[in-house]
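4.2 Preliminary Data

To establish feasibility before requesting continued support, the project team ran the inverse folding procedure on a target of 254 residues. The structure was first converted into the token representation described in Section 3, and no sequence information of any kind was made available to the design step. The complete token record follows.
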């Protein structure tokens, strides 16, 4: 499979997931937590706002998946980044009842950051010149996911398929692998190998965790488990594009 095909697959997975997120918002008539936190409250009380945002995401996702849409990728990247700065961070730092040191309170913002990073990664793929903040933003969420395996090992181990056995071993092993791959991508240490291994691991998550959960619980949260499975594929696609667009660069660069 050549580089162009891999990039096209990555864009398709990213765009498809953005469409899924947008459709889900239209269905639930509210913002998904990674798109907008409880702050500002007025945005959640008027259905028109999440629905309009959902429509924007659907259109943007279709353009990214099926057309040459570098500018749309840049638009999404800055849009998600603006939501983090103006809504997620103020909510986490000043409004949320959870302590700032609680890792859970950062997950929604982390996912928004990964969406932003993924958009910049896709934008860079059009010119062949990677946008460094893309891989950095994406990797921060991967590191956060890895840390959760050590902070909440009991909860995470419950998700390990029973047939695999040794749930605590896999919890810590996968957590360490996620953290290592995140740092490797940020600092460009064997970045091609790290990104490909991360893509493979995320695809296994999709096959053995997200897909079965989506099949068993398709109506939970109005299809939230289905959307989560598709988002996992988005992250897989981002890692693939990072692998083929940054793989030729050997030294750290920001």
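Position-by-position output of the design step:
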């Amino acid at each position: 499979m050549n580089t162009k095909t891999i990039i096209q697959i990555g864009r398709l997975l990213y765009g498809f997931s953005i469409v899924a997120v947008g459709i889900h918002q239209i269905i639930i008539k509210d913002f998904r937590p990674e798109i907008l936190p409880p702050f500002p409250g007025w945005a959640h009380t008027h259905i028109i706002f999440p629905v309009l945002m959902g429509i924007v995401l659907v259109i943007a996702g279709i353009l990214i998946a099926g057309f040459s849409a570098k500018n749309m990728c840049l638009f999404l990247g800055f849009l998600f980044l603006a939501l983090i700065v103006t809504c997620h961070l103020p909510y986490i730092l000043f409004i949320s009842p959870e302590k700032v040191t609680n890792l859970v309170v950062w997950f929604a913002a982390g996912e928004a950051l990964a969406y932003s990073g993924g958009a910049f990664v896709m934008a860079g793929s059009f010119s062949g010149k990677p946008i460094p903040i893309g891989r950095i933003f994406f990797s921060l969420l991967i590191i956060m996911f890895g840390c959760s395996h050590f902070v909440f090992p009991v909860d995470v181990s419950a998700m390990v398929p029973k047939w695999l056995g040794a749930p605590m071993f896999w919890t810590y092993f996968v957590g360490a692998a996620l953290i290592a791959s995140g740092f490797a991508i940020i600092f460009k240490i064997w970045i091609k190998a790290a990104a490909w291994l991360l893509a493979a691991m995320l695809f296994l998550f999709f096959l053995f965790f997200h897909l079965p959960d989506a099949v068993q619980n398709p109506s939970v949260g109005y299809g939230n488990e289905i959307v989560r499975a598709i988002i996992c594929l988005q992250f897989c696609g981002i890692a693939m594009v990072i692998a083929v667009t940054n793989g030729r660069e050997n030294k750290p660069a920001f």
